[in-house]
Amino acid sequence: MEWLCPAACLGLLLPLLLLLLISRLRRCRLPGEPPLDKGLVPWLGHALEFSRDAAKFLSAMKQKHGDIFTIKAAGKFITFLLDPRSYDAVLWESRCKLDFGQYARLLMDRMFDVQLPDYDPNAEKVMLRATLQSKNLPSLTKAMFFNLQTILLSDPSKPSRQWKEGGLFHLAYSTMFRAGYLTLYGNESKNYEDASGQAQDLAHSLEVYNEFYKLDRLLMKAARSMLNAAEKKEFGSTKKNLWKLLSVRSLNHRANRSAWLESYQRHLVDLGVGEDMQTRAMLLQLWSTQSNAGPAVFWLLLFLLKHPLARAAVQGEVEGIFRTRRQTIGQMQMTSQEVLDNTPIFDSVLNETLRLTAAPFISREVLQDMPLRLASGREYILRKGDRLCLFPFISPQMDSEIYEEPEKFKYDRFLNSDGTEKTDFYKEGEKLKYYNMPWGAGINICIGKFYAVNSIKQCVFLLLSHFDLELKDPDAKIPDFDKERYGFGMLQPENDITIRYKLKDQ
Ligand code: HEM
């Protein structure tokens, strides 16, 4: 091995030191600005720690700097605000100061190769919201119920009175994804109970799910531009396969197309978007609409399996519904909104599950230098060109000042002693407007929330009432989170958990 002489070492080190110096000199905290933490590595700043485990990194930054601070990551300065009492100042600020479209456009392009002319996320959300809520909700809920039954009960490979083993994450994600996909993008046959239509729906939805799952493994790295050459290749070919499966032409032939699909396609045509780009946008929407509910069902079922009291309470609630309606499990039709709205125990379990496992960022681009007034009365100056980010997972969701033992699952955390929903949570004696934010808030609130809640309920109730489910290893630990997913909605487990399941003897 050749050794470098001291002069050569100095020659290598000097430029590095110079870079370090320049990067530290280039930006410094001005009076009135939040604390600035640039990290030691030139340009990269804190990018590596941040993408490795954002929750751990941001919790440490909060300890060091308080509820607001600016970090540098991959050349970008991002200000994090972590006090829920101040979130309104961001959520309702005008779009000419804090814009949420710019970052969305960047991700759409990076992850899905989608570029839309005159893309206005706000107008698009307003238009699509109506197709997922109010008068369209009952037909979506009904379609989801039929499709869930197809996936869970008509698949010859699934329902059996013999014990089977499988991954709980795989079961939950594939069931919700496939039924959700059929509900929004349509079926093979108009009649949900037509056997040949069901067989084709089962095969097609499985093909879409399998391809999507491959893509999902790589999406977070794609969003951060961190794919290596081999991954880039796989990512590209998986997208192409999905574009084939979701081509506008094939979607046009499907039955039971949802109002959501009709409106979105019309919207793209109105924007003058060509067929290829329409298909790419369909894949982007597949991700927006189908990537969260499955992981939510996984965590919820896992918590029920690990907490027998919670499971008994939920099971009792479901059985109570049948009893009052004089129905047997076979006759169960979980499609009436009145029934779905009358499950306070399940609602508390769902809120608690999402509190522990939903971790979206709420991001804005700062378009002009501007003051930001926090609930404490203190004002900070935000700099044009920076990004502003809320991370409700750290606070309110995991904040020990708001929740006792925030890391623990307590199924009745969101229940009052009289069985009604608990909504009063406090920080430093102040009642909070935002105490749990899995669905985002303000302009960023999930437009599919009501449909998602109905679907999750239907899936869990169908599973609990038709199947015996148990952990293969009752002592199995709740898996850690896949930490690269912080910021992108529902978290996923680092590894699956094996369960045993069989059809109930009825
Ligand atoms: C547990 C399940 C779900 C959770 C936790 C969830 C959460 C969220 C969050 C936090 C956002 C805001 C993203 C942002 O603006 O930054 C969002 C947006 C959205 N959600 Fe959901 N969601 C769920 C299920 C669903 C379902 C089932 C649908 C299906 C219709 C849906 C449709 C959408 C759409 C269309 C958007 C807008 C995306 C965009 O801005 O482009 N969500 N969701």
TrEMBL record:
Cofactor(s) named in the record: heme
GO biological process, one term: prostaglandin biosynthetic process
GO molecular function ontology, one term from the record: prostaglandin-I synthase activity
Coiled-coil features, chain-numbered ranges: none
Main localisation: endoplasmic reticulum
InterPro entries: Cyt_P450, Cyt_P450_CYP7A1-type, Cyt_P450_E_grp-IV, Cyt_P450_sf
E.C. number: 4.2.1.152, 5.3.99.4
Xref: Pfam families: p450 (PF00067)
GO CC aspect terms: endoplasmic reticulum membrane
Binding site for substrate: R110, L116, N292, R387
Membrane topology listed for this record: Single-pass membrane protein
Location(s) in or outside the cell: Endoplasmic reticulum membrane
SUPFAM superfamilies, A to Z: Cytochrome P450 (SSF48264)
Binding site for heme: C446
The reaction(s) this protein catalyses: prostaglandin H2 = prostaglandin I2; a hydroperoxyeicosatetraenoate = an oxoeicosatetraenoate + H2O
Keywords attached to this entry: Endoplasmic reticulum, Fatty acid biosynthesis, Fatty acid metabolism, Heme, Iron, Isomerase, Lipid biosynthesis, Lipid metabolism, Lyase, Membrane, Metal-binding, Prostaglandin biosynthesis, Prostaglandin metabolism, Transmembrane, Transmembrane helix
Family: Belongs to the cytochrome P450 family.
Matches recorded under PANTHER family: PROSTACYCLIN SYNTHASE, PTHR24306
Chain's role: Catalyzes the biosynthesis and metabolism of eicosanoids. Catalyzes the isomerization of prostaglandin H2 to prostacyclin (= prostaglandin I2), a potent mediator of vasodilation and inhibitor of platelet aggregation. Additionally, displays dehydratase activity, toward hydroperoxyeicosatetraenoates (HPETEs), especially toward (15S)-hydroperoxy-(5Z,8Z,11Z,13E)-eicosatetraenoate (15(S)-HPETE).
Protein name (database record): Prostacyclin synthase
Gene: PTGIS
